[in-house]
Amino acid sequence: MSVNPEPSREADPAKDPDPPVMDAVADVRAMRGAFGMFATGVTVVTVGGGSPHAMTANSFTSVSLDPPLVLVCVDRGAIMHGCLTAEGSFGVSVLAAGQESLARHFSNRWRPLGIAQFDAVDWRPGPLTGSPLLAGTLARFECELWRTYEGGDHSIFVGRVLSMEQQDDRDGLLFFHGRFRRITPDRSEVSA
Known about the structure:
By secondary structure, this protein is an alpha+beta fold. Helices cover 15% and strands 38% of the residues. It has a seven-stranded antiparallel sheet with strand order 3-2-6-9-10-5-4. Strands 1-11-12 form a three-stranded antiparallel sheet, with no helix packed on it. The chain starts with 20 loop residues before the first helix and ends in a 10-residue tail after the last strand.
């Protein structure tokens, strides 16, 4: 019985149009650009308490329905990292298509800190955590910190959802390819 060896899987540069993986992964700017090819929603994550704080985040997602869990990834050097750890609870406001100014405000490093950053914003404290929840958003969540995981230069904060509100009558604000975007009016429904 003869065994035919599996053909070589080495890439032939003349035939392989893809760039070398290691070069692209080592280039932080290229990596950021590649990650930017995944469209995300835009949120504002908030904490209340003695030092209220907010930040714009697109690294937010649902994790589980039972128990109800969500996650947000926060850079270890961000002010929000220390606030989340200290407060133990947080709010998330999912921005609507017309709320790009809020996304820009809470991503501006030179905005006032503390409660003053909310002066020009319509908000109310969450009834369970006191975390600021922004008005006019598509959905609002209050969460208690459930687990924290190391994730390279970020921490992954998993929160157990304590309360939620939603509005279905508007489109969401998107972030894609380094820019804010809006969903086009043409839609196709997906049934689960």
